[in-house]
Specification:
single chain, alpha+beta, Ribosomal Protein L30, Chain: A, 2 helices, ribonucleoprotein, ribosomal protein, structural constituent of ribosome
């Protein structure tokens, strides 16, 4: 399974509650914070729903 680095690039202030919860579930919350996750279909769907707030890079 491939790993990806997910980095928050935008603030979650004034975003819908659903997007805020998705960011917290991924372990993000501050700009420039990076987490490494296995690229499962669930993680891919979460990233897709907040793609305008994060950058994704394969490891």
């Amino acid at each position: 399974m491939a790993s990806v680095e997910i980095t928050q690039i935008q603030s979650i202030i004034d975003r819908p509650e659903r997007q805020k919860r998705t960011m917290k579930a991924l372990g993000l919350g501050k700009i420039n914070k990076t987490v490494t996750k296995e690229l499962t279909p669930q993680i891919a769907g979460m990233v897709n729903s907040i793609q305008h707030l994060v950058s994704v890079k394969e490891v």
